[in-house]
Amino acid sequence: ELGVERRDGKAYLPGTTAALGEHTEAADTLLARLQQEEIVKLDDKALGSYLEQEGKLRRVGDGFAVSSELYDRGIALLSTLPEITLAAFRDALGVGRRTAQLVLERYDADGLTRRVGDVRVLRKR
Description:
Layout lengths: L4 E3 L2 E3 L11 H13 L3 E2 L3 H9 L3 E4 L3 E4 H11 L5 E2 H8 L3 H14 L2 E4 L2 E4 L3
Antiparallel strand pairs: 1-2, 3-5, 4-5, 6-8, 7-8
């Protein structure tokens, strides 16, 4: 009745969408770095949050991000590993130890896996 749309507990004018505005260049630079590097440091948390909502990256750890493609590739690998250890996941994904650990921790936080000692197990869906 008020002529507004409700999204995530906030009111917006109908048809209004978020835009990067002056942050477009920073977003393009960040996404270009993600194409070249497996993990990047996020200096602008708000920009990282926006790009994650848009599906262009996944935030991992405290202030880092990986590409959505790498994140999804890792999910596909989980069911193929006989035992989900940090070393096995790292080797299968072809990334560094730090990146593998941060991605696995994100899977734990997202409810995809659960850590049991030094291995992870897939959660039932």
